[in-house]
Each structure stands twice: as C-alpha cells, then as structure tokens.
Amino acid sequence: MSDARAATVPDFRTRAARAIAEPGLSQAVTSATLRQYEGRKRMLPELGHPLEIRDLAARIKDHTLAHLDRYLAIFAENVRRHGGQVHFAQTPDQAVEIIGGIARRHQVRRIVKAKSMTSEEIHLTEHLEADGIEVVETDLGEFIVQIDHDRPSHIVTPVIHKTTGQIARLFERVLGTPYTEDPEVLTAAARRHLREKFRTADMGICGCNFAVAETGTVCIVTNEGNGRYCTSRPKVVVALMGMEKMVPSMPDLAVMLKLLAKSSTGQRLTVYTNLMSGPRRPGDLDGPEEFHVVILDRGRSRILASEFRETLRCIRCGACLNACPVYRTIGGHAYNSVYPGPIGKLITPLLAGYDEYKDLPNASSLCGACFEACPVRIDIPMLLIRMRDDLRRQGKMHWFQRLAFRIWRWMMLSHRLYALGGGAGRLWDWVAPGGWHRRAPFPFSAWTRHRDLPVMARRPFRKMWKDLENS
Amino acid sequence: MRVQLFVTCLTDTYFPDVAACVVRVLRRLGVEVDFPKRQTCCGQPALNSGCMHDFRAVAARMIDVFEGSDPVVTPSGSCCSIVREYFPHAFDDDPVRRARAVALAGRTYEFIEFLEKKLRPDWSAWDLRFDAVATYHYSCHLRGIGITDEHVRMLQRFRGLEYRPMEKMDQCCGFGGTFAVKYGDISGAMVRDKVANIRKIGANLLVCNDGGCTLNIAGALHRDGCDVRVMHIAQILDQAMAASEKRRAASAVPQGVQP
Q1: CB within 8 Å of chain B, chain A residues 218-237
Q2: With contact defined as beta carbons under 8 Å apart, do B221 and B230 qualify?
Q3: What residue ranges define each of the domains in chain B, with the CATH number in brackets?
Q4: Under 8 Å between Cβ of A238 and A176
Q5: Of A341, A347, A414, A458, which is the most exposed, with the fewest CB atoms less than 10 Å away?
Q6: Least CB–CB distance from B50: residue in A16, A388, A451
Q7: Is the peptide bond before A443 cis (omega within 30 degrees of 0)?
Q8: Which has the minimum average pLDDT: A3-7, A39-43, A160-164, B156-160?
Q9: Which CATH superfamily is domain A19-301 in?
Q10: In the predicted model, what is the mean pLDDT of residues A166-173?
Q11: Coil/strand/helix, residue A441
C-alpha cells in the first residue's frame, strides 16, 4: 500500500466494525470458508498419517530454511544451466525495476499474469501499468478483482467476499454478459475474454508455489490452466518468488503438493501442476524464448534470523484463513494487507513493520483453529503471543495495559491479595440488578456493549472448601 | 488415588459450584481431593497479552504451589492447556524450573480428560439420568490438549439426555480473555453467532466446560433474552450421580444392603 493511501485508511477497529456491519459479508465469507474447511477435514485422512506428513513437511521446510543460502545458490545454478536467468531483488523497488526492465527491453505491450501473492506484495501490476503496459490477471478470481478495481480478500480465493449476484452484475456492466447467476456461463464469458489476451500477449508473469533446488524447477499450481497459458505461449516469461519458496528435491515437492491441495481447497491435487525448468529447448513444441526467475527478499532474511523464522514455512494454502473465526467475521479487507487471516497477522507486521499493523497480532482470540489446520505446523497462536511480547519489549504496548498487568501480577503473587481483589469485585456487584451487569465502566464497557456480565458468586470456592474439606 | 484440585481463578470467582461438583464426583469415584489453598491464577491473562515477564512470575509461583506428584485436575480446559503447552516454554532459560514445569504439565488434566483417560471408572455401576435437550460448545483450548469428542461421548452416557450438535460447535465463542474487551466489536459478533447457532438447534441446555466461554456465552444468552441453561459436565454428573445413589439406597435399604 502506498503511504498516501495508508493515511486515508481508518484504523483496524473501525475497519473491522464496518466489515461486521456490511450486510451479507460475514455470511458469504463464512459459508465459503466453511466449505473449504470441511473439504480439508474430509480429504486429509486420505494421507494415511496426516499428522506425521505435516510434521514431515514442517521438517522439510525447516531444513531448507536452515540452509537457505545454499539451496538458493544451487537453485540459481540449475536454472542458469537450463538457460534461464536468475535475479535477486532485495526490495520491492528492485524487483519492480528488474521486471519492468525486462518488459522494456522486449517492448512489451501486453502481459498475461497468473496468480502471485508476491506480485501483490510489490504492487507489480500498478507499476507496470504506469509504464503503459496492459496487464491482464488471468486467474478467474483475480480477473474479477481487476475488472472491479477491487482488492483480493483471501490468498487463495480472492473474491470470497463477493456473491454470485455481484459478479453477475459486474460481468453485465464490464463484459456485456447478459445477467445470469450460472457460474458456468460466467466462467465461459471470462474464458472467451481471456483467450484473446493469452493469444496476443508478449510476456507472461507467474508466481511460484515451490522452487525445487536440485533441478532448478519452478512449480506453479492452478485450477484453471491459466498458469500454463501464461507460461507457455508468450515469448518472455518471468516467475516471481519470495526467497522462502525453496524445497530441496522432487520427493520433497511431492509431499508439499499433496498437502497444499488438500489443505487449501480440499482437493486431492490441484488441477494443473506446472513444472518449469528454463526456456524452450530445441525440439520443444512450446515454451518461452526467455525465462527469468526473480527472487525477492523484502525482509525475509531478517525474519529468517529472528524468533519468527517458523512463519517462513508458510506455503500460502489459506487453511488458517478458512479455519479462523475472526476472518469469518470480518472478511479479508479489514486486515488492510495482501496477507489477511491468522498467518497475515504475523507476516504483515514482519514484512511491513509494527507501526501500521500492531493491531493485527493482538486481534486474535488465540483459539488455535489455525494451528490445527496448518499443513506445515506453524504454531500461530504461540507466535502471536511472542509478537505481542515483542511489541511490549519495543515499547509499543499501551501504558494502561502494562500498568494493569503489573498490578494484576502483584495481586496474583499472593492468595490473600487475590482474595481481596475478589472482595472488591463483590462490592461492585451490589449495583447489579438481578445478578447481571448490563453496563460497566471502562474497560469493561467493551464487554457490556455486547453482552451482560454475571455477578461473582457470593462465596468463592476457597471459602466453600472449608465445608467440603470436612464433609 | 489422590489428586490436587486446580480450581482456576474464573471458576473460583464466578462458578464455585462447578468446582464443588468436581470434588463430589471425584470422591464418589473413590478419589481423594486436596485443595492447595495458596493457588491463584495460572497466568494466562498476562501470557495472552504478551506480558511474558508477568506470566513467568505467576507461573513460577503456581509450580511451587502444586509441588508433589499427585495428578492435578482442573475444570477448565483452557487453564489446563496453559500449564501443558506454555509452562515448559516459559522457562527455557532456567533448566531447574523448566524440569519442574515439564513434570507439572505431565500430571495436569482437564476434568473429563482425567475421568476418561486416567481414572476410567466403571460407569455401568451408575444409573446416569439427566433430562434435557442439550447442545455442546467445544472450547478452543481443548484442541491444544488433544481432546476431540470425549465430552460428547460423556454426554451420550446420560439416559434422558437428547444431544443435538450445533452448527460450528468448534468455532470460538469470541471470549479470548482480554480480546473480548480489547476487540469488543469482533468478539461481540462472534458470540452473537454462537447464540444464533444455539437458538437454531432448539436445545434447552448448553454444555460448556470452560469458565471463560461460559461467562461470555451465558452473558450473551442473557442479553439476548434466551433462557437456555448453561452447565458444566461436572454439574450434570454430580446431579445424576446423587440421584443414582438415592435410587440405589431406596431400593437397597429394605434388603438391609449397603449401597
């Protein structure tokens, strides 16, 4: 997000409250996420030993991250051996400059683009469009987002916040498709529109789900086959990847692919799995003449060296978003980040800084549904707690909360003071008619705005114990 | 067998009857219950808020208070999960205390977990009856301690109890400790969703085995004017066991046989 736009965005609490008030949003997001959540639960047992395979996947990622410098070097060497070109970008600006440079060199007019979260991170499309290039998103969800000038709200299903009716009206307005809520007809309309773009594009851009070091292979998975078009038809192809996307070898890739599809959409495998190793070779029927891989750091090496390394295991499956009750309640836009949901609460502040995003790690009930769903066993609740502690250590916790917990700790370190605190609470309970507080002073007003608060029991258990002990 | 009761601050303060029921149920099953009187809180509020130093101080005290080798039983899955999942990590730099934290984590059980996985009583000796149309809220922290459907299976032992699973029963109610206050609007929307699902299933009893969730859901039910009762399984068990004892006594006394 550009700084100018960030300044106009209201704070997280306001965005969340607006999302909750938006009619139909939570229902749309909940029903779609539940479908994928249930799909994942149904499909995962097919792995035989789902927990062990997830542990294995976590170990593969941990091993790769521990030797990331070596695997990146091996990967780059193998891509170059196949005739591809590898570029390392420290910052988003550098990545944009590298890709823009490639486009300029080939006088590119039209780019077809497969889905890539990393490209969203660096606002690649906006930058290329500013250079006068037409960039066409070809993933159906991203295509809808693009023609509606909207933003994705989920990392796998970008239009999860939209209803079929909204999409039908959009297609009517932009593509001239007669109004229909039949998804097949709508998809066919998008397909016709995109075919022409695929045929005439001079450059293709894709992301990278996994990069296999041993073979120098870029692997992308799509359900629509658009990734295959983007990377086989145009003369120049650029794959953009975050530097954590590496796996050592093909057998490791197999583990990841199985987990990704099942965790993400509840499929056995994603429909199209593309493996690319360099440009077209003599005798090849298709493929680009030039093949580039751009590897982005953007703070990832800093995360690698930090106590939050585990977050780099993420394979962007979206299972944690689908499982998250907060995400289901507020949708993706309220996070104001390319990466919403539980994993977004960690990686957004890590990539973009605490100042603008310190609400994200705090706005979780720590229910643990994300950790349970994660195919690479990222302990998201534990990391959120660690990040809250890190915020405190950096002086970014509100003084009121720090003070409140200092007093609380002092009371909890003595059972007599603890009992005294309970007594004080019972004094306040005198003003609760019928045994319930309907209104309370700050900070408990946030509680009573939404629900009543019962009064405390007249006698705490520790007093009851005296009778129980002798009974 | 002897156990130490870890009552937890919320149960002690708001739901002491639940703890009394835990004590009575355990005693009926032949378990001796001890209550370490110096206990306060496990430290979860500070931990969740990122005040790790405050958490460590309170957790260290709890390890001292629950010295010994007897199992520790608690009516709250949430507090149990803090002891099991977070106590050992809190003392990574203090090997002595870490070893004691690991030991405490290894002998701390949620109430139903203790019954089902450790004590394994012969329920056929009891005529468990409880008349209700019940639904059940799966508390989040049960995930962390590896509990799946143990509570539901327990409920299905009661004759007269019709169990109806609610939609999204494993979705968080929005309590989350300070989360409910710091992000009141999100938390409020979450608990309203829970109430809607409880209403939809048409139960007259909500079974909820955690003080935090109960505080939140019962408060939202009351605000909503919904008269569904909220009970902990210990309370249901206590009533059903007491009634079973009474029936047994009534039928046994004429023959002069002790129950």
Answers
A1: none
A2: yes
A3: 2-118 (no CATH), 121-240 (3.40.50)
A4: no
A5: A458
A6: A388
A7: yes
A8: A3-7
A9: NagB/RpiA/CoA transferase-like (3.40.50.10420)
A10: 97
A11: coil
